[in-house]
Amino acid sequence: MEHGPLSTDYSYIDIHAHLDAYEPEVRADVLARMREHATGAITIGTDPASSRQAVEIAHHEDAVAACVGVHPDHATGTDLHELATLAADPGVVAIGECGFDYFRVGRSEVRKLQQGVFEHQIALALEHAKPLMLHLRPSPGSTDAYDDALDLLEQYARAHGEALTGNAHFFAGSLEHARRFLDIGFTLSFTGVITFTHDYDEVVRFLPQDMIHAETDSPFVTPVPHRGTQNEPSYVRYVVEQLAVIRGEDPEELGRALVDNARRCF
Length: 266
Prior knowledge:
Layout: E1 12-17, H1 24-36, E2 39-44, H2 48-60, E3 64-68, H3 81-87, E4 92-101, H4 107-128, E5 132-137, H5 144-160, E6 166-168, H6 175-183, E7 187-190, H7 201-206, E8 212-214, H8 236-247, H9 251-265
Parallel strand pairs: 1-2, 2-3, 3-4, 4-5, 5-6, 6-7, 7-8
Helix pairs in contact: 8-9
């Protein structure tokens, strides 16, 4: 990319945001605050329509790159053909968000359908040498989405080696899941959730510094100190600060490392 957050000197890069979710006038303000706080972002597609919009935003905003794909919740009845064209766009740096989501429907009801859509996107990522952006949400009280995704990705890793790359967005798995992702070269990213729960502190401390990312998943999961308001990419700085607190590292040093991670991985 000649332009975009991965080729420019930003203080922060939010590797997972949904800029298409804002009304145009709100998005203009959000982008202005990103510039104010020297923040770049990757905006994520969840279906063909939002993926098209992600590409359009990336074409018009130097602070934004695009990720195109089909969220597992949209696996039913979605035409996947357009993704091939979108994936080749130079403004696109990743494929997804894709994976498994069993939270509302249960594993047995949807696994086969979601797996087919997921594998289609794995093939696109390999074809275009772009990383996957994973969405994994298990059934309540289970780790099934993580287990199934890792079983599948490990098969592809054995077949394709280092050509298969990706990131586990909004990581909420166990330490053992984290180890398995590291074993296949996948990074993990964390949201503002870490500013109001300690559930993931062990994993955050465990990860090598070069295998971790900060994200907002905006406009969702707003971090402290802005909980109760709409989230936005400029708030990724609070995630970086909390990652540094948990890891016992200097926030500025970690921030620079996370920008380097985003540039390397995406």
